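Quick one:
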Amino acid sequence: MTADGYSPTPATRPRGPWSAPVAEGPLRATVTVPGSKSLTNRELVLAAIADGPSRLAAPLHSDDSARMVEALRALGVGIEFVPGEGRYGDDIVVTPTWPLRGGSTVDCGQAGTVMRFVTPLGGFAGGDVTLTAHSSALHRPMGAMIKALRDVGVDIDDGGTWALPFRVRGHGHVRGGEVTIDASASSQFVSGLLLAAPRFDVGLHLVHSGDRLPSVPHIDMTVESLAHRGVHVERPAPGEWVVPAGSVRGKDVAIEPDLSNAAPFLAAAMIVGGSVSVTGWPAHSTQPGHMLTDILSVMGARTSRRGGTLTVTGGPAIQGVDLDLSAAGELTPTIFALAAFAEAPTTLYGIGHIRGHETDRIAALIGNLRAVGGEAHELADGIRIVPRPLHGGRWKAHHDHRLATTGALIGLVVPDIEVDDIGTTAKTMPEFPDIWQRMLDGEHDHSSDDAEAQRAS
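Output:
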């Protein structure tokens, strides 16, 4: 709970072991998922460096967004929570301050967006800013970001570790200029630099030098968010961005539902049968989760969108596929669960970078599946899943929200699956166990259909 009494996640959220409920039959449910974590944290950062106040409607309230709020408050940014029309909590009003305040410590928790997006902001502070993280997240790659920021004039003292924790010695401004970065490990390096770039003295000319660039839709999301606030990012060539110095417009922004968090609910219809609908599905989105309609269709589902609601209906069988998920690596755990029940083997590739998330997701997914009787093999850049009969057992979350929801999917048709810590879902969706049970109970949540459809149009 923050100083103003705001509790970002429910105090009664479940922690520890959770017996995944088995579906009693085909599903018939409509659910509403909370706002996008990726959009919420990008808009919080842009609002913090804008030329006036902003209001975020229907934002995500979760551990990751709470970490971002606390980080920005530590830098002197004014943040208030005001009643809104969103189902899952208040709107957020952000009042920027300039320069940002130094002399603070930012605990990033497990939030990659906080460690990658707030570090550049530390250069704008009038004093030192120390960044640290949860012990389970200190391994997450930061070296490329540290090097790039030093190249544009940010003073960072990392003690030679190229990792958290470290101190940013803020001087109230950042020079900017041209910089080359290898963002192969995370697209968040690019997004973090682009978000801060309008406030650099001379803007930014950023070039990616690596062999690959994962999660490109997330970079597109950053560029689009900047455009909505009056900052035009030029792209002279693939892997190159030019951001002019200038102001960032304060404005009101409606946050889309988190489409990747919707993935387990939609996939449930394919595993159990029946149909699941998610309200507020946008006609256009830069979220990687927007690719679900194509991916699930290829794997045997029927998808339709009507009035802002996406419906997925399970087909007669789940198809084994070869999928390049380089643009949507965060969907891997859900697709992995589907593949475990497919008619033929599945190969997922382009996902080597997910080894550096909350945990090594490739190793963790394979280990969990093997523990319940399944077969999967690690590839240089992916996973091969061979369907086998499964049995109950312990499913380890490894402090990773997406691993926990994968266990819930497996447990829909495999009795006695126990997720060792369902509380990890609070990172991006504290309400997950409740929404999951409502889906299984066949609830049809139309309480916010009109508002969601209007937001998605």
